[in-house]
Amino acid sequence: MSATLDIGVNVTCPLWAEALPTAAGLSLDAADAAYHSALEHSEAKGDPGAEVSIVLADDAFVRELNRDFRGEDKATNVLSFPSAGTEEPPAPPGEPIILGDIIVAFETSAAEAEQQGKPLADHFCHLIVHGMLHLLGFDHQTDIMENAMEALEIKVLAGLDFTNPYEDGVGEDK
What we know:
The protein is an alpha/beta fold. The protein has helices spanning 14-19, 23-40, 59-70, 106-115, 120-135, 143-159, and strands at residues 5-11, 50-57, 78-82, 97-105.
C-alpha cells in the first residue's frame, strides 16, 4: 500500500487565481510528488500517510508570519512550518502524520520568476517542492545537505516536466 498525502489548499490572495489559475492544482501535484519522492529516499516503512496545508497568500501575510515566527520583518517567497518538534501530541498509531504548513507569497514569487526569466508555474512548483522537502526534514544548512536537497528538487520537478531551477545558477532565496 502506498502512503497517501492529504493536501489542503487555501487561496487567500486572489492574485494567484488571476496570474496562475492552475496554482491550486499545481500545488497538489508538486507537494504529492515531493512527498512520494522523499519517501523513496527514506527508510520509513508502513507509513500511514500524512497531511499538509498549503496557503497561497500575499506578501503582507507572509511578512507578518516571517516577522512573528522568524524575527525577519520582510516578505519572503515561501515559508514552511513543520509540525514535528512542536508541542502537539503525535498522531495516534495508524493515523496520518500532520507534516505542517507551506505558505507562498504571491508578489515575491511572481517578481522572482520575472527577474529570473522563468514561467511563474515553474517557479511556483519549485517553491512548493522546496517547502514540502523542508516539512519532511530536508534542509540547506550545509553544502552536503543543500546538494542533496537540490538534487531531489531537480528530480521531482523533472518528473512533473518542469525545468531545472538551478540550471542557470539562479535558485530561490535561502
